[in-house]
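Message: A physicist's question: would you kindly supply an amino acid chain plus fold tokens?
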Amino acid sequence: MGLSSTLYSGVSGLQTNSEAMSVTGNNISNSNTVAFKSSSTVFADLLSATISSSASGVNQVGRGTGLSTVQTSFSQGSFQSTSSNTDLAIEGDGFFMVSAAGSDEVLYTRNGAFSFDGDGYLVNADGYRVQGQLFNADGTAGGGDPTDIQVDMVSQVPAQSTSSIVLTTNLNAGSEIIDQDADGMADGFDIADPVNTSNYSTSTSIYDALGESHQVTTYFTKTDDQTWSWNTVVASTDLDASVAGAESATLIGSGILTFASDGSLSGASEFDLDVVGLAWANGADASQTIAIRFDTTQFNSSSVVFSQSQDGYAPGEVVSTTIGSDGVISVSYSNGETRNVATLTLATFTNPGGLVKDGGSLYAVSAYSGDPKVGTPGAAQGVLYTNSLELSNVDLSQEFVNLITIQNGYSASSKVITTVDEMLQEVINLIR
């Protein structure tokens, strides 16, 4: 091995340190890139040349250095809080899954700076669509293979007619008994004079099939020490003239509530309101049925409604979308309803260092990374944080140290070349 070979050893040092400088420069330039993962270089000596062998061993001379590998560090980056509820960060080993429109290839990223595009797809900054598992139409989790997440931002959620009412009340055990029978009704209630023939009342808004609201009022009349009658009415003007009563209100349901000596309700607590066949004045579906359930007590305290609920609602438009820490994407509507659309899916890899960088903070699967293990956010896949972004994990102080060592290595390699050049000049000068 002669001086000319030594020249190439110096050249290999220049090339290898140049490549290391490229890696370090790339790290520094991406120190503010969301979720960027830094890389480091590993040098290795080239195959040595054997110049002689002796009893003491083999004598070898090195032939320079080469770049063995460029390793990506997937250490956790710190989080930055944001004002966007579609910004997401992962604590753990998971990757978001994205795919280009019309493509079957899935790419992976830690950059959770997402937004909804004009068609309602959840996308990253380059338009790649985020993948997840869609919910079924009935609101149950659908499972299945991940697919593009899309939210219908234009259509209204249709109205739902009321099918049940729940009243949680207390009726005052000390109320006076009303036993008058002005209209021949045994319970003492008179629809022509509901206020004076009842002890207490409460009103509830219900909805027909068209989403129009109707006010129904339930009157409670104490008829015995442990017995109350209930009568539910609706305004006659809300009904078609063919079914509306002669009074301002029409009775649509009635019954008896019997209480035990401890004030608890005994017997059946759920009744059907007689709304089957009622023709609403607006022409809504007349086959609506409503069940009313009383969660009622009779204690010696003021009559009061603790809560009331019903399951109908008017049509509504999209107001906002939210992403929960469980990865569930929900849509809120102007009528107060909330519906789940999809659950984000995350992927983990046996060897994330084997992933291939694809630009734009994206990674592609390779034979070295292994196949992705797909699941929803959690301890295994990674914990999701909303209104947050993961910052770059570049350590600038370490990178500046690397700059110094690489520069020194490069300068030293260049000195090898200039020194060998001077030695070769001495050889050439021998013939003068």
The longest strand covers residues 213-224. The longest helix spans residues 396-429. The chain is about 15% helix and 40% strand. The mean pLDDT is 90.
